[in-house]
Hints:
By secondary structure, chain A is an alpha/beta fold. Helix content of chain A is 33%, strand content 23%.
Amino acid sequence: MTLQATDTLLNISNLSISFKSDDGWIRAVQDVNLQMAPGETVGLVGESGCGKSVTSLAIMGLLPRTARVEGEISLQGRNLTTLTDKELRRVRGNDVSMIFQEPMTSLNPILRIGDQIAEPLRMHAHLTSRQMSERVKELLAQVGIPNPARVMQEYPHQLSGGMRQRVMIAMAMACKPKLLIADEPTTALDVTVQAQILDLLRKLQEESGMSLLLITHDLGVVAEMCSRVTVMYAGKVVEECPVDDLYYEPEHPYTQGLLGSLPDLDKRERLRPIPGQVPPLWAMPPGCRFAPRCSRAMDICHSTEPQLLDVEPNHRVSCWLHQKGGTVS
Amino acid sequence: MSQLPLQPANSAAVAAGPRPRTRSQRLWKLMRSYPSMFIGGFIVLVMIVVAVFAPVLAPHDPLHQFDNGLNQMGMPLGPSHQFLLGTDPEGRDVLSRVIFGARVSLEVGVFAALISLVIGVVLGVVSGYFGGWVDMVIMRFTDIILAFPFLLFVIALVAILQPSVANVYIAIGVLGWAQMARIIRGQVLQVKEFEYVQAARAIGARAGFIIFKEILPNVLAPVIVFTTLNVGTNILIESSLSFLGIGVQPPHPSWGNMLQEGMTVMQLAPWMIYVPGLSLLLAVLGFNLLGDGLRDWLDPRVGK
């Protein structure tokens, strides 16, 4: 095994995803690149509709059949986009797992908790029923559920939102995945519970050495959890950097805008929201997609798309302000 | 299927006040909240008992023509000690015939409903789950079935198959699945968008698993309700067919052909109409009440 192979767990290169509509193909995600090392936590940040969830579904191979995926998604050097359905099923829940935003609807209301957690084990591991129930108990204890033996017998409606999210995490962890995708895992939870769930994810990650792709729009969560961040806007990556740079030296006006719309207790200023809205997918501006909302937009921003280029080592930005050809007007 | 949660959110402890403690207290509360379910259930239960134990309960052989079953004029006898509900123009005991008629009604009602259930659920689930042109084809076929006058369609099919009890329920069942398929399809379309179905895919579940474990159990409530109501409808259709002479063939008793036989002597022997007619009314009422009650109980939105 070369160093290269051990260094990258997940490698997404030039990923584009389009959906078929009545007016032809609509591109939801364009030219996304993302690398993750084993054990690393990467944040994927952006507003609703910017393509973060679609990207994560593409990794799982869960996009509807009407979607067209171009580019490559490889997990440990294996290209997931070319796998058959059967091979993909073996990857899902086994090598890659996912937890969803809404713990209230992510569990089947009519299956006991124990049975639901056992499902991925049944699909991917060959265990006797006693081993299985031991493993389920172990998993429930691992995600911090008190009295696992009793909870196993309960139905989802008997648990609170936070507990259900723990159950979802237990399910995702059942087969010891190498990569866990968490799609807004704390958005639907109370603030105090949010912190507990994040702590739990961090603890599990330390124990198992898995990588965590955290999809969120909450920059606070990112600061707490991630080592690197990828910021997406309207289907494209606009900035990619270590988490500290994101807060101290955000380069892209959109990232700066995101941070500016966060309340800061030290400065008693008004919040500065980003004006305007994400352009609809079928009416993308020809140049930089953020240009219509950007306070520092130049002529070139409206006509030509910028490239994602290094401004420093490990810090890439797609903005004319940082590229040749951009002149302040 | 042993773990069906047939105890929805609004089941027992709907009303305010302390939680009923014992099992009988809870049952009493449930009965007061959903009386129609229990009244309907009681009628249905009585009908099942009567049908199952018909040979024990019937005082006479339903086919036997009694020598003393007719008066000197050759007319049927009214209710008496020997014939509690009178006799028919052939001198047979009406009570015994009504009791055995319950068997036919129940058999046809239930089996036809089960056949419709299986066909409707399979087509509905396939249609809703896979969508696309499969859905298109199945739903247009369903529309065609629904566009036919149902009774005429059944009559035609029974005529082809030869009239018999089995053929009657096969015909009703094979033609009566369309509404079921539509209901199921609608439910599946709704349920398959829930996140737990997506979550099942995310752990590597195959389509069969998702259909049987995630989707089907969650659309079961309307299936139960519709099937119960369907039994009542089927009983009515069976008696219409027998009344028209293409269902159960004389001398075997069915409520439909008893009504038909009674028509000719309606003025002289009204019991011949009232007895099977009222039985029919009660049976259909029972299944409808039960179905309505089950819907209120199983669907938290309709309940009180």
